[in-house]
Specification:
six-stranded mixed β-sheet, 2 domains, alpha/beta, eight-stranded mixed β-sheet
Amino acid sequence: MKRVILIVMDSAGIGELPDAGDYGDKGSNTIGNIKNAVKHFDLPNLRKLGLGNIDGFDAFENESPLIGCFGKMKEKSPGKDTTTGHWEIAGLLLDKPFPIYPGGFPLKLIEIFEREISRKTLGNYAASGTIIINDLGDEHVKTGYPIVYTSADSVFQIAAHEDIIPVNELYGICRKARMILKGPHAVARVIARPFKGESGKYTRTGNRHDFSIDPFGKTMLDIAAGSGLEVRGVGKIKDIFNGKGITKSVHSNGNNDGVEKTIDYLKDEYEGILFTNLVDFDMLYGHRNDTAGYARALTDFDNRIPEIISLLKDDDILIITADHGCDPTTASTDHSREYVPLLVYGNKLKKGVNLGTRDTFSDIAATVCEYFGLTPTGNGRSFLSFVK
């Protein structure tokens, strides 16, 4: 009974891509710069898998002997957002990036949205979600107008106090936005951002929900599910793929909860893919330039790796990677265009194999499809023969 356990450390990049300068990301190296900035920071279990041995990534000393195989991957699709990264991991390549709105959304688009929801809106600019709810929260509570904002990602975010616009009503507003945002304005995600609290103390709740655009083609998830395999998602995986190709899923409340729910799924008997996203690295620390917090989160995850490995069956393959960077040590609070790590482990797999620099994240999809004997998506090159 075969399983692939795929864990995405959201935003844990390992150095600028050759075209990083085109995105304003020259010098970005999320894990490497954290290592240089934080004293006594170490990731011994990721190093045992090969993190420190990756070509061109010199933040950690080489480890020997290794228990895993290692490499790094380029992002072939344009962009540096969550959806693009995850879709490429699953075997879909974009030929143009999702639209972004650093100056806010066109007024005509906002007017259409306001007519559809029969309310005015507040905001309409790029902002930190934690800051904008405190900047505009009082006016929102007074008027009942939802707060619209965006970020460096291709997102249309709608924030509302749960006592002013109940969560289910906010979800309905988001669905209307999703229907409007098509064609040239087809953003990757519409995101409900509920919050609670009082003036000056507004905080976001755990009732976030993403309304994603459908993948434009079949992913490895669709192919696996269509062949009768289970595809289980942990965290925002279901949202990123808009439910396509997911047979079972559970949301998570932070990294530790995501690991716990991954472990719960590992204890079940099934054949297929377990796909986990650990979002705290990005959401809580990368975007907030919290270097120390990011280091703690990486250390916490590193400490759980032996437990994850102990639950692997003989035919399981563990793949740990990322979807982009979000370097907390730079002035930018946006995602960064970076290589991502590729760490592969299995009880029956070879140890210490250098997988080199992969041309696309889709090499993971090609490998997963080959492992299960599935027709691949057509993108990427399998590395299965190197590790078996």
